[in-house]
Structure formats: structure tokens, C-alpha cells
Amino acid sequence: MTLYTPSPAIAAAQANGTPIVALESTIITHGMPYPQNLEVARQVEADVRAAGAEPATMAVMDGTLHVGLSDTQLETLAQARDVAKLSRADMAACIATGGTGATTVAATMIAARLAGIHVFATGGIGGVHKGAEGSFDISADLLELAQTPVTVVAAGAKAILDIPKTLEVLETQGVPVIAFGRDDMPAFWSRSSGLPAPLRMDSAHAIAAAHAQRIAMGIPGGQLIANPIPTEAEIDRATLAPIIARATQDAATHNITGKGVTPYLLQRIFELTEGRSLTANIALVRNNARLAAEIATELGTLS
Ligand code: PSU
Ligand code: MN
């Protein structure tokens, strides 16, 4: 059984031991509007290459799990409508039934592990939503981090989430949350959430060494690296707070639930910030891609 199809560039990187950075595709299909989503997908791939690694964007297309996409496939995905948003629960079903779907953080981690890829860059992970004590809305991303050995570089948890509860679940699940180069936990569009981060590291080398140490010790699961958005691109917390409150209220008014919640909130915040949230999102994903490439390169020198 062929579990996944590597692109020619990924097959070559696997054969040569070139560092590889996994990239998700839900950010393309459900996280940003066309055509910016395509431009960003291409730009992030170029950022990974410029930093000396090979990008592996993941997606299920017509029943095949692709590890690394061609430019034509990226374009198809960026324009496609009604693409499924795949997580741990539904990726296998999508493949088995010949479907097409974009990978979330959880599904991208599963694909990365299959392909022997240890490092993954994204924007923000899913987490515990505000009001989760009533809705039980907790992203499968958190449980994936607990069991799949991939280091995920994100800009912290999105400010649309309940960040204290997200940190509590990660702690319960034994996931190291490591802020890069600072003491407090970044909050996606803002450099700080106002909360201390559980761990801090200041170099890609230290992050790679910690990843290798967990594997050597047989500790399952990955690491979450919280890399703050570059200063010039951030939107401060005070500006965002009322916007997030409004978007969250609108989601409730429109009875948005389940998988629809995160895409709805991102779109609504895009509208309410008149596009500023997207500019910030692009800057932070690119910043994460660069750090992930450095970590993947460091890991290559350790093994
Ligand atoms: N970050 C973004 N845009 C996104 C997401 C994250 O900037 O679209 C996606 C990721 O794929 C993440 C998913 O895994 O949202 C979480 O969705 P949920 O909360 O439904 O688990
Ligand atoms: Mn959810």
C-alpha cells in the first residue's frame, strides 16, 4: 500500500538528506482568501528554500496524500471550492474514498511523520476555544502534539482562543511549549499574550537538541515552538481585543460550530481589521518558515 506520494523535489531531498519543512494546506483553503492564499503559499515555500531546506506542503487530492505539491497543484488547491478540512478524524476516510482535502496542523503532523519529516511551520495552531466549557470545542491539534513526534513552529495560539486553557491542556498532555527568544507566550497577531510561556529557548540548535532528546528517551509527541510575530507586523492586544469579541459574538449569533468556527473567525477578523490581520498573518507565517528551516537544518547536523 502506498501511503503517500512525494513530489520529485521531496523524493530527492529524502534521498540526499536535505532538511525538509512540512507545511499545511488548510491555511491556503480555509485561512486566507484567493489570490493572496496562493501568493503566500508560494512565498512561504520560497522562504523555506532560501533558508536551505525543502518545503513539503501536504494535501489529499483525489484520494492521494501528497507530500510536496507542484505549482499547478498549489494553484488548483488555492482556487478550489468545497475542499474538506482534514484532521486526524477524517484524513484516512478522505483518502479511502478518493476525496480531496486540505490538511490542518493535526493532519499535517500525521503526514510528516509518515514521510520522516520532523519539523513543520504554520501560522497558529488550533486550541481551546473561548466558551469551551459549554461547547467542548478543543482542537484535535493539541492531542496530535501529544502523540506525534513533530516540532511545530507557530506564532503561539491565536488570540481567538482561550490561551490560558490552551496552555493547560498542552501541559496536561505533556507538550513542551517553547517561546522563541522571549519569556512570554506570543499570541499570533500580537507579540505577547501577557502570559508567561512554560519554556524559553534562544536558538534553533537548542530546539533541535530538545526534539532529538525526546525521541532518544522514547517520549512520544512533539514540541510547540511559539515564535513571536515580527515587531513591525504586529497588531497590539488592545486594538484586537474588541474586534475578537465582536467576531466571537457574530459566530454565536450565526450558530457557527465545529470545523466552521476557526475559518469564520479568521474571515470576520479580516473584515473588521480591513485586511490588517491578513498582512500580519503573512508576516508571521514567513517568519515561522524561516525558523523551521533553521531547526530542520540543525536536526540534520545532530543525527
Ligand atoms: N492558522 C491560520 N489559519 C488557519 C489555521 C491556522 O492562520 O486556517 C487552521 C490550521 O490548519 C489549524 C486549524 O490546524 O485552523 C484549526 O482548526 P480547528 O480549530 O477547527 O481544529
Ligand atoms: Mn474545533
CATH superfamily label of the largest domain: Indigoidine synthase domain
What is the element string, with H for helices and E for strands?
A: EHEHHEEHEHEHEHHEHEEHEHHH
How many DSSP-defined strands?
11
Helices, by number, come to: 13
Question: The biggest beta sheet, please?
Answer: 11 strands, mixed
The Rg value, from CA coordinates, equals 18 Å
Identify the bound ligands.
pseudouridine-5'-monophosphate, manganese (II) ion
What is the architecture of the largest domain at the second tier of CATH?
3-Layer(aba) Sandwich
Proportion in helices:
40-55%
Top CATH class of the largest domain: Alpha Beta
Overview of the molecule:
The chain is α/β, with parallel strands linked by helices. The chain has 2 domains: 1-117, Indigoidine synthase domain (Indigoidine synthase fold); 124-303, 3-Layer(aba) Sandwich (Indigoidine synthase fold). The protein contains 13 helices and 11 strands. It has helices at residues 8-16, 26-29, 36-50, 71-79, 91-96, 105-114, 132-135, 140-147, 163-172, 204-216, 237-253, 261-272, 276-302, and strands spanning 5-6, 20-23, 54-61, 64-67, 84-86, 101-103, 119-121, 151-154, 177-180, 199-201, 223-226. Strands 1, 2, 3, 4, 5, 6, 7, 8, 9, 10 and 11 form an 11-stranded mixed sheet that branches. Strand 5, helix 5 and strand 6 (101-103) form a beta-alpha-beta unit. The protein is globular, with a radius of gyration of 18 Å. The relative contact order is 0.15. The mean pLDDT is 96. The structure holds pseudouridine-5'-monophosphate and manganese (II) ion.
